Amino acid sequence: MVYKNDIEIINNLEINNIKGTITVNINPKIYNISVIFSAAYIFIDKAYVVITGDPENEIFVELLSKDKDTNLESLGRDFNNELLNYAVYFHQSEINKNLKDAIIHKTLLTNEQKIDDNNYDEYSDLKGYNNIDNTVLSSQDYRDDPLGIAKPWSEDKDEKKAD
Amino acid sequence: MTPITIYEERNEVKIDINTRLYNYNSIITSLKDFSENNWVYLNMDSDLCVSVFLKPKNKDDDINLTNLGYEFYNYILGIMKNGL
């Protein structure tokens, strides 16, 4: 542990007890920007987060706890753990990316069936639908009723009289 | 160095944001949301940094300007995370 101008330094953590902040120094070659932002997002409920620095060389994440009683060192160490957590997550995602894509591709194509002239007869439903469609289209007048489905909703006067 | 500067006499806070780290669209989206309750001003000092000035519209509210600045930083993070 090193002290420098009231700032306590522990590994990559700089604790400023006067301001109540902790700065985490991160090498972007170890943890990339996406990992840093994902880890930082986890902390916005319990701390104010400011990210500064040079994305090529060194990034500083400053955490100012919203709760005055929070142990700053624990907060910084939690941040380090969260960085590792997301680094592993992104690494695993990259490894599984091709497999995931293949599964989604397979799932989406499961029900796709090619319809061509050779296997057209297998699709009896489609064929039947097509016939009905043709019959309807070929009839010149809607009153022809080639399928015999047109029935009046009200009873005939003749039928009433018979009753 | 904290990139938040308070101007007590003007009741205003200046927030310097590194555009190499924070996405520019997320900054202006956040700024638009903050413009409901604050007077906002965006200034570009260099290609690497923009300055955002926030001044609360309601003078009667006792708003902590430092916290307002930090809230703005957290808000940008949220916008970036949600990909808006």
Structural notes for this entry:
The complex is a heterodimer of chains A (163) and B (84). Chain A contains four helices and six strands. With 163 residues, chain A is of the alpha+beta class. In chain A, strands 1-2-3-4-6-5 form a six-stranded antiparallel β-sheet, with helices on one face. In chain A, a hairpin with a 2-residue loop joins strand 1 and strand 2. The longest helix of chain A is centred in the middle third of the chain and has 38 residues. Chain B has 84 residues and is α+β, with helices and mostly antiparallel strands. Chain B is built from two helices and four strands. Chain B has a four-stranded antiparallel β-sheet with strand order 1-2-4-3, with helices on one face. In chain B, helix 1 crosses helix 2. Chain B is globular, with a radius of gyration of 12 Å. The model of chain B has no long low-confidence stretch (mean pLDDT 90). The interface between A and B is medium-sized, with 19 and 17 residues.
Overall geometry of chain B comes to globular
Order of helices and strands of chain A: EEEEHEEHHH
Q: What is the CA–CA distance across the termini of chain A? A: 107 Å
Please describe the biggest sheet of chain B, giving its number of strands, its sense, and whether it closes into a barrel.
4 strands, antiparallel
Average pLDDT of chain A works out at 81
Measured by DSSP, the beta-strand proportion of chain A falls in 15-25%
Number of β-strand runs of chain A: 6
How many angstroms separate the termini of chain B?
29 Å
Unreliable segments of chain A (pLDDT under 50, ≥5 consecutive)? none
Q: Fraction of residues of chain A in helices?
A: 40-55%
Oligomer: heterodimer
Which bin fits the share of residues in helices of chain B? 25-40%
Helix-strand pattern of chain B, N to C? EEHEEH
Contiguous uncertain segments of 5+ residues of chain B:
none
Question: What is the makeup of the main sheet of chain A?
Answer: 6 strands, antiparallel
Percent range for β-strand residues of chain B: 25-35%
